[in-house]
Amino acid sequence: QQAVELLRTHAAARALSLRITLTGRTGLHGRVLAERARKLETDLELEAGGVPIGIDKVACRTAPVWDLQELSRGTSPVALLATFLKQLDSEMPGEQAAALVERTVGRLNSAASARPFQGLSATPLTIERDEARLRLRKAGMDLLERLLEQGEGAR
Predict the structure, then answer these.
(1) Of 81 and 24, which is predicted with more confidence?
(2) Neighbours of 79 (CB within 10 A)
(3) Helix-helix angle 129-149:77-89, to 10 degrees
(4) 55-85 pLDDT, tens per residue?
(5) Verdict on whether the full-model pTM lies above 0.85
(6) How far apart are CA 51 and CA 4, in angstroms?
(7) Is the pLDDT of residue 42 over 80?
(8) Is the pLDDT of residue 110 over 70?
(9) Concatenated DSSP letters of 37-92
(10) From 11-20, 60-69, 105-114, the region with the lowest mean pLDDT
């Protein structure tokens, strides 16, 4: 859709080249997804309004899907982090998770209202609990990925 809109606004375009970034968590993470992405670069031919559209590059920045229930068994750093991430996902997070979300809301709002950021927006940025929880979850999942990359010793 965005490609077609670009073509409409730049009517003199003779060709359009796209760079695509795949993100998120998927069971196709890794070599299989990278192979499919490379196939897109060479095999996919598109056209919009008579203008050919090519795929210049497909970058895979995906992560695997993990079973937090399985990973949370035990007392390893991975298990403790997985347990904490499950609490963050819960409708009724544990006391520690709720306290961390509240501290994060306070710190992010304090940073957003700091002098260097004043005047950047007409309305002050306010971080709510759900946004803070999402940011904590992303950071936790990134950390979990790093721990799992270290292998069995981290488990």
Answers:
(1) 81
(2) 17
(3) 160
(4) 888 887 777 788 899 999 999 999 999 999 9
(5) no
(6) 9
(7) no
(8) yes
(9) HHHHHHH--EEETTEEEEEEEEEEEEE----HHHHTSSSSHHHHHHHHHHHHHSSS
(10) 11-20
Q: Is 13 left (phi over 0), alpha (psi -120 to 50) or beta?
A: beta
Handedness of CA 35, 37, 40, 41 (dihedral sign): negative
Report which residue type is found at 97: A
SS3 23: strand
Contacting residues for 46 by C-beta, under 8 A, at least 6 apart: 3, 52, 53, 54
The angle subtended at Cα 85 by Cα 66 and Cα 111, nearest 5°, is 125
Closest C-alpha among 155, 151, 141, 137 to residue 65: 141
Q: Which of 94, 86, 65 is nearest to 140 (CA)?
A: 86
Cα dihedral 105/100/25/125 (nearest 10): 0
Alpha carbon 54 to its chain's center = 25
- Report which of residues 36 and 80 the model is more confident about: 80
Contact 68, 141 (CB under 8 A): no
Residue with tokens 């979300």: 101
